[in-house]
Amino acid sequence: MKFMKLGSKPDIFQTSDNVTAVASDLVSDISIEVDGHKFLLHKFPLLSKSECLNKIMKGEKGINKDEVVLPDFPGSVESFEMCAKFCYGITFTLNAYNVGAVRCGAEYLEMSEAIEKGNLIFKLEVFLNSSILRGWKDCIICLQNSKSLVPWAEDLKLLSRCVDSISFKTAVDASKVDWSFTYTRPLPSSLPQSSDIKPGSPPWNGSHSRRHHPVPKDWWAEDICDLDVDLYWRVMVSIKAKGAPPDQVGEGLRLYALRWLPGVSKEQTTHDSARMLNGALAGDFVETSTKHRALLESLVSLLPPEKGSCSCSFLLKLLKSATILNASQASKMELAHRIGLQLEEASVHDLMIPSLSYANDSLYDVDLVQLILEHYLMQETSPPTSPVRSRRVPFEHRRTRSAEQLDVVDSRRSTAATHGSKLRVAKLIDGYLAEIARDPNLPLVKFVQIAESIPDFARPIHDGLYRAIDMYLKEHPGISKNDRKRISRLMDCKKLSMEACVHACQNDRLPLRVVVQVLFFEQVRTAMSGGLVDLPQNVRALLPHSQEIAFTEANGSISPGRTVDENWETVHEDFKVLKGDLAAMKIRLAEAEKERGNLQAQQQPVKNLKSKSGFPLFRPKKLLNRLFPGLLGDYSKRPVIGSLPGKRTNPYSIP
């Protein structure tokens, strides 16, 4: 830290309680009061350097005054004492912590060159321009300590000069940085590291040499986090105006939020943030929440407009904090829009935004996630597969065929990337639905609305959606029969894997019609894998396109030694058996429904008792055992493709 000593005489100021006097043989002839503190001094040294005291002493009528009060003195008592010591020639030290206050105090007292050459204002300006504003950490300290000196610091342009100096240094090329700074994060992998550096060790802690550690481009981000939010906002605006890259600005905002905003740190969960705010209730809760709300809204206003400048996880943490702190609707909408642009980078945990609204009892803010999903889907999804040809302009050079082919390749790559993004988002939303389904107060309408927002092509497999539906049915056993059918219609039985089909066939929570559909398509799939040459067109029309292709490819290799007539006879016999089983299943299903109605009518008085004891009146599993004897047992014994020997955990089992 830079410092400067002024004066050469020993300190003869003595302070007792609220009175400071000069240890001298001369009796004090003037009393100056600053913020309730009295200074018993002498007129001659003060009046020779302060134009302000000259004016006050003479007064309007030219009458000398022995007692002077200086109201609203900048820097308070300490600042005036240093100015008085300069008048006496007493030694005192200037540094980054006090130079701003002394400069404002000297301006208040008008200690300029007009009254004496080499006065205090001149010496302070020399120290500021030659040392403080040229340094890095000294400039930040001076800026932070000058905040309480407004409006004097603003009028003297002390704040603006510090801000400009800081932003100018951040624009310097990293290879030319030769001053110390704070950097406690691991070095980016893109930077070359010396062999004597331990992996993960902080490269800059104030003692390391620049020769052993490369300087990262965001070297400045941690030091400016010491500033208050209003000063930090001014510095970041100036840094952005100097052309700082968006990713560096985003990293700086992330570090500032980690330090000052509750709930953003990885070590803090949402419930920890709520406890922090509730703990502040014993103190000044309103003041604390207002301060954090202003900080959050300032950070949102500083977010770079470029996509990817901030991680999606960080943006979602800001959105959680905005919900807890009840930030402005504009800030929430801005965050939701930015998150929607990069939703494929999010995780299920990040999307679990708590709901603090009194309008409903839901645990999570589902409406906000729905808004994020809408912003994501509103993006331009499918760019053209070929470049648009405009009308030829005279004297325009014709593009080569290779250039046009490159445009086609780039366009198709963009389309493939968009398609992959939607696949990841669909998987993310299915996982999110499985988590919010545990909320007993979640309305079915919101669950269905989010599930239907995903395009059909983005869900090639419906296992995740089935798990979410099963979880909702388990946590909401009291929903009506129509609601069960409605939520089950979200799932396409043709897109379930073998494990999901096995679980669904034995699931008592699903409607019986859905279980029958699962069994039917599983029978068709079994017939395909068993070596059938062909299936009737109406049955093949029910299959997904991928399964139909797989069936066609496997068609010619399953029985190479047999004739077409023999294969067709086998197929015809197997299909007749399958058709007969389906017809018998329909008859038995009608009988079972009729029997179920009779049982419900007869056992109506004891319905409540049986439901409380945990024994349902009717179980689809028993009915399916009657319809397909031995079928469920065969499914349980069938080996699963891709499974390892030993104990296997079913991913579709609900704890």
TrEMBL record:
Sequence segments annotated as region (Disordered): 189-211
Segments forming a coiled coil: 575-602
Family annotation (InterPro entries): BTB/POZ_dom (IPR000210), NPH3/RPT2-like (IPR043454), NPH3_dom (IPR027356), SKP1/BTB/POZ_sf (IPR011333)
Residue span(s) of domain NPH3: 218-525
Metabolic or biological pathway, per its Swiss-Prot or TrEMBL entry: Protein modification; protein ubiquitination
Domain of life according to the entry: Eukaryota
Listed name of the protein: Phototropic-responsive NPH3 family protein
